[in-house]
Specification:
The structure holds 2 protein chains of 2 kinds.
Chain A: H1 10-36, E1 39-41, E2 48-50, H2 54-61, H3 63-94, H4 101-113, H5 116-127, H6 133-142, H7 152-180, H8 184-192, H9 197-208, H10 210-227, H11 229-235, H12 247-257, H13 261-286
Antiparallel strand pairs in A: 1-2
Helix pairs in contact in A: 1-13, 3-7, 3-10, 4-7, 5-7, 5-11, 7-10, 8-9, 10-13, 12-13
Chain B: H1 2-31, E1 33-39, H2 44-59, E2 63-69, H3 73-85, E3 92-96, H4 100-106, E4 109-110, H5 112-118, H6 130-136, E5 137-138, E6 141-142, E7 145-150, E8 152-157, H7 158-163, H8 174-186, E9 192-195, H9 200-209, H10 216-219, H11 233-247, E10 251-252, H12 259-267, E11 271-277, H13 281-291, E12 295-298, E13 314-321, H14 326-339, H15 342-352, H16 359-368, H17 370-373, H18 375-385, H19 401-416, H20 421-443
Parallel strand pairs in B: 1-2, 1-3, 9-10, 9-11
Antiparallel strand pairs in B: 3-13, 4-13, 5-6, 7-13, 8-11, 8-12
Helix pairs in contact in B: 2-15, 15-16, 19-20
Classes of the chains: A mainly alpha, B alpha/beta.
Chain lengths: ~300, ~450
Amino acid sequence: MQSYFSGRWTPYLLITPMAIVCLLFIFYPMVETTILSLYKVSFFGLKKIYIGFENYRNLFTSSDYLHTVWLSFIFAGAVMVLTMPVSLCLALLANQKIRGITIYRIFLIWPYALSFAAAGTIWFYLFNPTVGIINYLLNLGFGIKPDWVSDRTLALLMIMITTSWKMLGYNIVFYLAGLQNIPMEILDAAGIDGANAFQKFRKITLPLLGPTHFFLFIMNLLSCFFESYGMIAIMTKGGPDYATNIMIFKLTQDGFTYFNSGYASAQSVILFVIVCTLTLIQFRTTEKLVHYGGA
Amino acid sequence: MKFKKLIVKSLLVSCLLVGLPFHEGLVYAQEKVKVNFWHAMGGWRIEVIDRMVADFNLQHPGIEVKAEFKGGYDETFIATMAAAKAGKAPHVVMVVQYSTQEAIDSGIFGGAEELLNRFGFKVNWADYIDQVLHTYRVGGKLYSFPWASSTSVLFYNKTMLDKAGQKLPYKPTFNDIIQVGRTLVKGGHTRHAITWPLHYWFVEQWMAQAGQNLVDNDNGWSGRPTKANLTSDAVKKIYEWWKQLNDERLWVNPGRVAWGEAVRIFVSGEAAMFISSTAHVALLQKEASEKGFQVATTYIPILDGTKRNGCSIGGGTLWITKDHPDKELKAATEFVFWLSETAQTIRWHQNTGYFPVKKTAVDALKKEGWFVAQPNYKTAFDQLLETVSIPATRGAVFGGFREVIDHMETGFEKIVGGEPVPKALADMSEKATKSIKEYQRLERK
């Protein structure tokens, strides 16, 4: 490495801008948040009292909060199981050489261009139990009109479905890129050896997409834990009865709606630790499974 | 020589004359005082406000008001707090009734009366409707300008009820709603009897009617409250009635604070009745006539066997943030003063349904025959004038209100999910008391 740079200080000089940005916008707020989590702060931030670990103690003894932690995992897990296979299937379809494929691709990627809040608004109209089109169709087809608004399980399911839908675009883009990076020679060779389409997919495509799976897993996890806020804020506001109140929503509500900055800071520290741990575990365990030999 | 001088002089003078308007125009543009106005009036009301603001700007060439819709009441309040922290607070902000105490405690607003006196604007407060002043005068001081005031009323699909041969009393009770609702649904006239957004406000209204305070210390009027009052018999009966409507599928849940959804449900004929804000009168009349049915209004239903005490006032008032140069504060005050003039009060009322907050406005409307021609605009107003002034109908004033609202709404969701009413109420009350105490813990410092 050393040989690339003429002077001893050049590399440090080159990373300075990035380091400054990180220090200013990531590390400084992180430290501030951690400190703030030890305080009780008045709603306008003018007064604060030091209360030690009281915020944390309150959180870990609150059944409502423990519920949000548990719920966040269920939610992220379900969305992942729902969105990743579907995205892959759609990406496989969008990878075919047919007429007008670019048009299909654009439509498939479309959800990504919407914000979570906009998508939430659209879906909330569709899911409206009384006047929404989804229940209209369900009623036509099966004679049922599920109450997506009042029922705890259905409300959660609704958020899971819409969040999964929202992630499709992003996932498809990356799966498409991954698919196009798979060398044709390998697939051709397998074809000559007599492998059928399913075998080729199972033994070649899927493993070679390893880095993509891994990358998307982390990105989806982050989206579920953080970005899904917009969807929930629009559609259910964490309700009914905390059924869709995941960690990020409760945190934002406590921090920005009720101005309990200390309490919210403690929650964000906990959320940070959880997501870091998950990502670390992910890195450790998948290293063996991921083949970086794709392209 | 003399001739040459004359030419030079006349040239100079003409230059000045030609240049003058440009020069003045420039000065004008520079000196226009900019006033930012953040409000929470979405939908059809955005246009109403924009037109009024345009008129103000036209009449006041030295001031340029820019109105901006900032989302719901909570969003607007939160955005204002964030902007104030960053030193960029808008001059005029619409704040909802339940955020009154927090707005005062934030310390970012200047008092309405103080500002008016300081800049020499004379407001005849005696002209304001008493109930309005009772709601917004805290500790003897009026911090904000009453403007978009509302109460709740019951709207019903008159065409549908007439067809079913049903009649709703002008002052209905809970039981009337159940009886009429059951008949309508059984007769196949509608899928659901009634709707309203899952929102604390209606519970507060029913509590006010029954003379029940939301919090102790006279609803916060005689001192900072220490606990919530959500386990009384009346509150239990209110939630039980709501639960019964829900269990029988008579009430349809549009979602939390989902005003837009509720409007759609009512307008599409999926529910025969709709308890909402009087602010919806103009919108619903228009939408209903497009759908070919007639809308009528009644007082909100109350608990059977109780005296009708009247309703508390909801909606927003206008607040002025104080951290601005005098010039801007004066312009902001002038804008709000203009909005509170009788003519503007009338215009706002007629275009939305928010009731006129001034007596002169009401008199003018009466003279015009407005209330006779438009009885739906009158209902909320009658209901308000008949209101007895007790702490319950003055509305509650305390910090941490928005958290208590969340507990009240979650509490009902628990009931819908099957939790027994007394248990849900006890839980709700405990959490609400905790929120009130936590807020107070810092205020005492």
